[in-house]
Amino acid sequence: MLIIIGIKGVRVASCRPEKGVLQQTKTEEKEGHQENTSTVCFYTLDLDQMKELNLEFTRCELDAVEGVFLTETIRANWNKIWNFRARPDDLLISTYAKAGTTWIQEIVDMIQQDADLEKCKRATTYKRHPFIEWSLPESFGPIPSGLELAEVTPSPRTLKTHLPVQLVPPSFWDQNCKVIYVARNAKDNLVSYYHFHKMNKMMPEPGTWEEFVEKFMDGKVLWGLWHDHVKGWWEAKDEHRILYLFYEDMKENPKQEIQKVVRFLEKDLKKEVLDKIVEHTSFEKMKSNPMANYTKEFEGIMNHSISPFMRKGAVGDWKNHFTVAQNEKFDQDYKKKMAGTSLNFRSEL
Q1: % of the chain exceeding 90 in pLDDT
Q2: Percentages helix, strand, coil for the chain, rounded to the nearest 5?
């Protein structure tokens, strides 16, 4: 079995042949002219190599950037991330982690591809939409960082971030880029994030459920305090081209919310195309889609037997996790942290 990771535009000289390198050069033709010549370099790791790397790999530690907890690797690469050069036609998708990120990514891709399913299967979500701040320690092997993928992705690019608004590279604002932000109610977001930590060895050790609830309320988790994250982007929407969506609205009326995205992207889709997008991006379809459910990425790192990447996608699942005492304490803390904002969430439908 092979794990294959492809990067467009990487020279073979910069690859690591000891890990197994395949090279493919592709030249696209358009209207009789030759253009977009690119080299695709594939890193291949057999399963034994992946297991060997996995044994050496330990869960990441957190380090703060301007008071926000990020991974040590992100912190080490922060200057490159902060100085990332956005392009005017970039679209940035932003969320707090486990707030519907992959869902909105698939919706956007379907809209951009006019609901052509084959085009949406061209690559996994990780490769279609570079995750700009993400990278793994060098000890894990030659897996491309989000910055590397972004640099070789042709325009127009759709990019992803979990950064709070104040840490987004300023070039996105300088270039007046469009941003789609999805927010999910805090309790369901916390539950999903906890299960994600358990199944994903790239994340910090979550501890017990009780410990994770406390970490989440204190902002001592990757990408910082949820309350500040959603409020920061909410306030920024009046100053920048930001479409702010709510996970709960998307669950309740997906067609209506997808139409908002269509208008924001200045697209004109026929009814049958819109209906196809609604069907393809349902939770049931997404959960079984190998191009979106992360069963084709990071094998040995994400353990789907512990918890699937797409677990339930429900609104109100927090009731199955919070004790009465935890819920009361969380509500009191939430009221303090969310005081003064016009931002409102629904924790059940």
Answers
A1: 61
A2: 40, 20, 40
